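Sample entry was shown:

___
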Amino acid sequence: MKDDPPELSENELKQDFATMLLLEKLLRESYSNTQSKDIQALQWSILRYLNDTAPSRRTVRWISSFLCLTHAPIVRCIATLLNKGLVEQRRNPMDARSNIISLTSKGQRVLEEDPILRIAARINQLPYTDRSHFRRISRNIALTKDQAEGK
């Protein structure tokens, strides 16, 4: 039994759209550094992925799949992260056609300044019930992606 009405009204759709614009604004504001020398949003995503993933899955193929992007932007970002000394790569012992990418100690230190941590701190300031609802709703939205796309 669903608690949603069969069809959303135009006003409800506008409110949902406005909510998503606020979330987008919140995320964009968290990445306030926009100079080319700064770490960009996609680079932060790659650093987070490398920090939280088993070494066997730290390849361009796995990163691309996780972030739903083609290899080209991932390869460019990894090259930038290599130049900044935030990651290193070595041949994959299981597949010589690929490299295992890992965080350097500098990359691990930089992650302590992850802009998403500032958003998490703001969420943590909410009352417990609101935090709990926000987490549940965020997970539901992420997990219902295929349903929304008609798959």
